[in-house]
Amino acid sequence: MSGAVSYHAGLSAEDQVARDYVRRGFPVAARRWRGKGGEIDLILRDGAGFVFVEVKKSRDHARAAERLRPQQMQRLFAAASEYLGQCPTGLDTFARFDVALIDAQGRIQILENALSG
């Protein structure tokens, strides 16, 4: 897949996942939020807290999950810490890390708390 096609496929996947979360009552706080530590695909409100979501798309859910690398997780944690540092309650703010997997047919599988240590 070329860079431009991959980029647009990623945006489409993120839009699809954002719509799914919004339908379930999680408003979007930010998309593709970039901090010094890295980028977060989606940040959603969960009451007074946040859900940080990494979106992965591939031909099937297993392949999508394989695309999540340890370095990416470290960057996600660093960026989330930076984001939470801007909140009134700082790092004491509730946060959850989900991974959203999308297959070639557009089916979404959400792995809640997938990155909890």
What labels would you give this structure?
globular, about 120 residues, five-stranded mixed beta sheet, single chain, about 35% helix, alpha+beta
Helix content: 25-40%
Strand content: 25-35%
Strand order of the largest sheet: 1-2-3-4-5
Order of helices and strands: HEEEHHEE
Topology, please?
Elements: H1 3-23, E1 28-35, E2 38-46, E3 49-57, H2 61-66, H3 70-85, E4 95-102, E5 108-111
Parallel strand pairs: 3-4
Antiparallel strand pairs: 1-2, 2-3, 4-5
Explain this structure to me?
The protein has helices at 3-23, 61-66, 70-85, and strands at 28-35, 38-46, 49-57, 95-102, 108-111. It has 117 residues and is an alpha+beta fold. It has a five-stranded mixed β-sheet. Strand 2 (38-46) and strand 3 (49-57) form a beta hairpin. The radius of gyration is 14 Å and the shape is globular. The relative contact order is 0.19. The mean pLDDT is 90.
Q: Short description, anyone?
A:
The chain is built from 3 helices and 5 strands.
